[in-house]
Design a protein that fits this description.
heterodimer; A: mainly beta; twelve-stranded mixed beta sheet; B: mainly alpha
């Protein structure tokens, strides 16, 4: 069974023209999608180029999607054009400027209608719901409600607001380039990475035996684990520090490399991996935490 | 030698047990006495026939008849008033097996001890080497199983399971080409950054394998995640892979490269030269 709900173009409503002047109010889309087999935990995959994703678990069987379109942010190009039209001309070359002025002349005395489609697509197949936003359209804030046991695969680029997940027990896979990742009351396994943002995860409980991994470049990694968790932590930070209030039993890193090339005219070298291995309550679920510039915080649940 | 004496010696003659002197006398007599010669010939024929007769096997009935007889004998003894206690009869039966002379007894005991020790030793050696082979086979089987499980886990949809696959791969002793290929494949094509990072860590353990260094250098050009790029640069600079210099130079040319990765690549180039 394949359900395709195309919302693109649905919101081409004439009143939108009237709304164009009340600039701060944004458009919204709303959709309810059910899984093929609601008895089985489903998966929701979201891919947003510009915007944020918020997912919340709720006591229902369907997936409820709300999309709030933001006002078009001025792109660099558009800003240059407007600057050119208002007389600050030195940034653009003459030919380009002449073209823009000619276009502006044609539209003199008229206003632009906001009739473009939003480009939101939702598809369901085999208990997997895919939500995607066409690239180059407006930035969007997606708020999605899912059954508690749903698995998530969320991808979000080029936005400061990032990804937020609350009360979801399925497997969670997240990646962002700029925004932060904030997961609260999840049980994992969680596999997340962010280039610029920080990663914060509060585990309600831990699904044992399923390895997890969180990686960041600039941001901190901050996780909160249940008191009685059995975990084996593998922590790596280049420039940051590691903090914890757990009684962590540190074991020396066994990743040692010895190289002897003296016979072949080379040198001798021993290198140690910059990995800290720590066991909580005797060790258990493997959790790898990697950050290059940030700190690592491993907290006890209060 | 007369005919009388010859007849007495005939059995020994055929068995070849005559002393040299007597043998010569017997031959001399046989040469001159046709009667004795004929008798010896007929006796020799019987002797040979006896030799080829099959050995008689005791029939199954014999065994039961023997025990019946033994039982009847014991009953007779009991009826006769001489109550033979079973233990006594057993010991007397055993003692009959025992040689009478102490020297033979000692010899028998010695032979039995040696036989016991020898067979014990043989059993032990055989079972020990069998156990060793079994343990080695088991180890190999586990390794083989790890390999299969690792490769199949690497193909799962769940990133957590693929992470487990990478972790299993790194526990395989002497990974074959299959594992190396699967890990390099994961590094190049896995959709998840964390899984690719784990693959970098696992491949670091196997960089002695000829294909690994080539694969790592090649992979650097194809990576888009700054996290994986950093991990690969760190690894290649860490193992002083000089062939990485060219890949680093090309990476630095990329305009879209993350500034931090660029900085690290430039530092790496200096360290490699």
């Amino acid at each position: 069974m394949k359900t395709i709900v195309r919302l693109a173009g649905i919101i081409v409503l004439l009143w939108a023209v009237g709304m164009a002047d009340t600039a701060q109010q944004s458009q919204t889309d709303h959709a309810v999608v059910s899984f093929t087999n609601p008895a089985k935990p489903g998966t929701v995959e979201v891919d947003v180029n510009e915007g944020s994703i918020t997912v919340r678990g709720y006591e229902g069987k369907d997936v409820i999607i709300d999309a709030r379109w933001r006002e078009r942010a001025l792109t660099q190009e558009r800003r240059e054009i407007e600057a050119a039209l208002t007389g600050v001309e030195e940034e653009l070359d003459k030919e380009e400027l002449a073209k823009i002025k000619a276009q502006a002349e044609k539209a003199r005395g008229m206003r632009m209608l906001a009739v473009e489609s939003m480009g939101l697509t939702i598809e369901e197949e085999d208990n997997v719901i895919q939500v995607s936003v066409e690239e180059g359209k407006r930035a969007v804030d997606l708020i999605i409600q899912v059954p508690f046991s749903t698995s998530l695969q969320l991808s979000c680029r080029d936005d400061e607001r990032g990804v937020t997940v609350e009360r979801v027990n399925g497997e969670i896979e997240v990646d962002t380039s700029d925004g932060p990742i904030t997961l609260t009351n999840v049980s994992g396994p969680v596999v997340a990475d962010s280039s610029e943002g920080e990663i914060k995860v509060v585990f309600g409980k831990i699904t044992p035996g399923k390895p997890m991994s969180l990686s960041a470049m600039d941001g901190d990694i901050d996780i909160t684990l249940p008191l009685d968790v059995k975990a084996s932590l593998k922590m790596k930070t280049d420039e940051g520090q590691i903090f914890t209030d757990f009684d962590v039993q540190l074991t020396p890193s066994q990743q040692k490399r010895e190289e002897d090339e003296r016979k072949e005219g080379g040198g001798y070298r021993v290198t140690y991996e910059k990995v800290t291995l720590g066991l909580i309550n005797g060790g258990g679920t493997e959790i790898q935490l990697t950050t290059y510039e940030g700190n690592i915080y491993v907290r006890k649940a209060k | 030698m007369n005919c009388e004496r010859m007849k007495e010696l005939m059995a020994d003659y055929l068995a070849g047990e005559l002393e040299e002197k007597t043998l010569a006398e017997a031959r001399a007599h046989l040469a001159g006495c046709s009667v004795c010669r004929e008798e010896l010939e007929s006796l020799s024929a019987i002797w040979t026939k006896l030799g080829v007769l099959p050995k008689e096997q005791p029939s199954a009935a014999l065994r039961s008849r023997f025990y019946d007889m033994l039982e009847a004998y014991k009953e007779g003894l009991e009826r006769g008033g001489i109550a033979a206690r079973p233990l006594q009869s057993l010991s007397s039966w055993l003692s009959r097996l025992m040689p009478r002379r102490p020297a033979y007894q000692l010899a028998l005991a010695f032979v039995l001890i040696i036989a016991g020790l020898g067979s014990g030793y043989l059993l032990n050696v055989r079972s020990r080497s069998a156990a060793q082979i079994e343990v080695a086979a088991l180890g190999q089987e586990i390794n083989e199983m790890r390999r299969t499980v690792a490769v199949s886990l690497l193909k799962q949809a769940s990133p957590s399971e693929r992470l487990m696959g990478v972790s299993w791969s790194s526990r395989v002793d002497r990974p074959g080409d299959e594992i190396i290929t699967a890990l390099l494949e994961t590094l190049d094509h896995d959709s998840n950054v964390n899984v690719r990072l784990a693959a970098v860590d696992a491949l670091y353990l196997f960089y002695g394998h000829p294909e690994v260094k080539d694969g790592l250098v090649r992979s650097l050009a194809g990576q888009t995640s700054p996290l994986v790029q950093l991990a690969l640069i760190d690894l290649l600079v860490g193992i002083r892979e000089r062939r990485a210099a060219e890949a680093l130079e090309r990476l630095i040319q990329d305009e879209k490269l993350n500034p931090k990765v660029k900085k690290r690549a430039e530092l790496g180039l200096v360290q490699l030269s």
